[in-house]
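Hi everyone,

Forwarding the result from last night's run.
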Amino acid sequence: MSPALAETALGLVGVPFRLHGRDPATGLDCVGLVAEALRRAGRQPDPPEGYALRSTSVARFLRCAAASGLTECADGGDVVLCRVGPVQSHLAVRVPGGFVHAHASLGRVTFLPGPLPWPVSLQWRLADEKD
């Protein structure tokens, strides 16, 4: 787990939720959360734009993850893509004791303790960090 990414993600807990949101002042969605956490950790994220809330394709996430300095890994990823519904993917950031994610129903970025309640599709690590 990247301590810098985890710390920046935890600092975003409480930010309002907004679909396609990219600014913490006005709201973030799960993609915006990951992009902002990466930016605050000193990275240059390349988040996807124009995606639908529901979709079965993760192609945009793959391209943007690589362009943002993330490397796919089997487990223990800093950024996790999970399947919250049959046609809905969701990103979360791994932090000590759980995950930070943008929770649409609660209307804000939240900390989710423990393991994710959804199946994990893909995981990425910051390219230059081992653990």
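The chain has a mean pLDDT of 89.

Cheers,
N.
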